[in-house]
Amino acid sequence: MFGGIFLVAWSRGGISGTFALPAGSGDVLVGLLALPAAYLLLAGAPGARASAIAWNVLGLADFAIAIGIGILSAPGPLQLIVPDRPNAQLGSFPTVMIPAFAVPSSILLHALSLRQLRRMAHGTADDQSVRQREAANA
């Protein structure tokens, strides 16, 4: 939900819409879809695992887009997009904590979530064999 900060900063004229609109709206969308994806998975609904995988892929794609636009629109040697106003606010505290801490942490959490979803798919047979061994030992 950190993307909402970018949308607020854009509405106040603090950063360019070139970065804020795709990055902020994508972050808000992924944040809002987290609740239904988690609920479906918890409830064991049909297709819930596929929905959770799609949510994680959407989140990672959102980060790829935001990071790409951020790099290409930031002043420096890689700047290919010149926004209507510089994204100077992204490099100052506290908003610098988003790309410095929140984004890498969130990417790791998406990767761990995908790993756990993969383990869930393969773990059902393992869980049954563990239960059978425990029953045999009891």
Tell how many strands the DSSP assignment holds.
0
Characterize the main sheet.
none
Mean pLDDT: 86
How much strand content do the residues show? Answer: under 5%
Instruction: Determine Rg (CA atoms, Å).
Output: 20 Å
Query: What class would the helix/strand composition place it in?
Result: mainly alpha
Order of helices and strands: HHHH
- List low-confidence stretches: none
Number of domains: 1
Roughly how much helix do the residues carry, as a percent range?
over 70%
Q: Supply the number of helical segments.
A: 4
How widely separated are the two ends?
Answer: 48 Å
Large-scale geometry: elongated
Give the gist of this structure.
The protein has 138 residues and is an all-alpha fold.
Outline the structure in words:
The protein is mostly helical and 138 residues long. The protein has one domain (3-123). The protein is 75% helix and 0% strand. The chain is built from 4 helices and no strands. It has helices at 3-11, 17-43, 48-73, 97-137. Helix 1 runs antiparallel to helix 2, helix 2 (17-43) packs antiparallel against helix 3 and helix 3 (48-73) runs antiparallel to helix 4. The longest helix has 41 residues, at 97-137. It is elongated, with a radius of gyration of 20 Å.
